[in-house]
Each structure stands twice: as C-alpha cells, then as structure tokens.
Amino acid sequence: MRSTTPDGTPDRVQRLTISKAINLGLRAALDTDPGVLVLGEDVGALGGVFRVTEGLAKDFGEDRVVDTPLAEAGIVGTAIGLAMRGYRPVCEIQFDGFVFPAYDQIVTQLAKMTARTRGATPMPVVIRIPAGGGIGAVEHHSESPETLFAHVPGLRCVSISNPVDAYWMTRQAIASPDPVVVFEPKRHYWDKAEVDLDATPYPLHAARVVRAGTDVTVVAHGPSVPLALRAADAAAEEGRSLEVVDLRSISPLDLAPVEESVRRTGRLVVVHEAPTFLGIGAEVAARVSHSCFYSLEAPVQRVGGFAVPYPAARLEGEYLPDADRVLEAVDRVLDA
Fold first, then answer.
1. Catalytic amino acids?
2. Neighbour tally for 41: CB within 10 Å
3. What are the backbone dihedrals phi and psi of residue 195, each rounded to the nearest 5 degrees, phi first?
4. Which residues neighbour 151 within 8 Å (Cβ) at sequence distance 6 or greater?
5. What are the CA-CA distances from residue 85 to residues 8, 107, 123, 299 (Å)?
6. How far is Cα 208 from Cα 160, in angstroms, rounded to an integer?
7. pLDDT confidence band for 138 (50 / 70 / 90)
8. String of b and e for 209-241 (b: at least 16 CB within 10 Å)?
9. What is the pLDDT of residues 140-177, one digit of tens each?
10. Are residues 273 and 133 in contact, defined by beta-carbon separation less than 8 angstroms?
11. Three-state SS for 117?
12. Residue 223, preceding bond cis, omega within 30 degrees?
C-alpha cells in the first residue's frame, strides 16, 4: 500500500525495491480488476520464494491468489482456461529453469490461441519468470531463456531492469490483451529507486536511452543493464563515453533508439547473460548491421554467456559477463 506524508496525504513517490515495485503493481491490478488472478507455487501464504507476492493472499483472498501444485504445465494450462473464461491470470514460475515443463502449453496453446480463433479468444495471460544468475544457485535456478520465448510468434516478452519499470511494466503487461512473458532480474530484486506511482508510464515495448554517450553504444536488457552502466562509469574514468540503451522489450524489439545512437557513435556492443550463440544480441547485431551499415566504424561486438550448461555456483563468476568483458569489447570496437 502507499505510504503517507505527515499530514496524511498519499505519498505518490516512494523509494522501492524491484520486488516491492512488482508487488505494488500486482496489488494495483488486483485492486482495480476483479478478473485478475495470481497463481503459482507458494505465491499465497509464503509470498513466493523471493517474497514478491507477500501479503497479496492476505489482502485479496486465497481464491484470487492461488497456491498451486508443483506443476508448471498445470499452472499455465489453468491460466489458459481462465483466460478463455474472461479472467486475466498472472502466473509465477519460481525459477527460470522451471518453466520448461510448461513450454508446450506456452508455445502450442497460449501463443497460438488468439490466431487459431481468428481473434475471438484473446489470451491476456502474464507469465512472470525470475531470470538470470548471480545468486549462487545451480542450473535451473540461474538461466536466461528469453530467446526461446522471443522466437515464438504470438508471445510478447519484456525484461525488467529497474524498480520504475518493475511497477509499470507489471501493470501494463497485465492490461495487455496478448500473452506477455515478463523476465525479472532476480539478482537485482533488492535494488532501490524512486518510483512515482502516478507518473505517465513509458510505453511497454519501447527501448530507452538510460545514459547518454558519444563514443560507443552499449545495448542491454534486464540484469545486464546495471552491468552496462557500471562499465560506462569505468570507461568514463578513462575518458571514454558510452551510451547505454535498455531494450526493455525483447519481442517486439524497438531498435529505433539503438539505430539513432549507432548513427552517432558508429560503434555497437550488445550485452546479455544468455549464451551469445543465436541470442538476442545476434538479432540486434544483424538488424543494426543492415540498417546502419554505412554508419558503423567497426564490427558489432557481443558479450554474453558461453554455449555450455550453466555451471556450478563457484564458477558462475567465470561464466557471467562482467564489466571487464564489456570494456574489452569496447576496446575492440574503438581500436578497429
């Protein structure tokens, strides 16, 4: 709920963590639309593994915030049925790697139902997935499967990087008539920022420049955005100016801000935690190379995970991109 100022008036600007901002976004949707339901493993009494849904079952009841069995295919299948009856279900998948038992439901049913019925059956289903590494967990708990969903026509995919987007993108995804997969950066759940709960939200599927620069364009999404910003800080100490663009939406992609930036800088580095092979960075590189061919001063560089299964926790520091790897890519495009 909103805090208040000393005179008792609502405080529209709050300093929130990403997890709390998502919680407030869910709370606002539940409060304004009786058709919104939240379902998933331990989302009720426990409040979710990361406590993102904490307090929702208490305030809205167990018939709207539903603890399910440990069966992801059943969670998504139930959500599809609910959407067919006019509800707006929000599914929580506990960890990124747990979504695959539901992949069949998502790809063959959820993504295709509206087209299959010629628009007669909208699928306003949200699937929330805590994604990415950095928490010292093993495989199935630290993966970045966004490309597998972005490749599927009929699905929209967005990636949260900060508390402001956490609040507004949650609300916008729930309001969408289409199925939306929301990737939440689990290692950054406790990052804080000021959030204006009465602001006009940025469009859901629009990219945004989050740091202006002149020498190199760095594109990232989700948990890689804070990394790109740290790299930009380090580069600035060496006199290099990096412009950082947060993709925000993975499908559809909004590359207009990226192309505009590259036409000014002439150089592009794309960063993400998922393996670079056939990743989002490959799509960005291909399209920017086509649209900005005569502006590029160097080949596009990609920085990401390696094409191996996610390693044991003690090795994830070697697997995940870090600021040094981003800066090495910056050196390559500047030295070309």
1. 141
2. 21
3. -125, 125
4. none
5. 41, 20, 10, 50
6. 12
7. confident
8. ebbebebbbbbbbbbbbbbbbebbebbeeeebe
9. 899 999 999 999 999 999 999 999 999 999 999 999 99
10. yes
11. coil
12. no
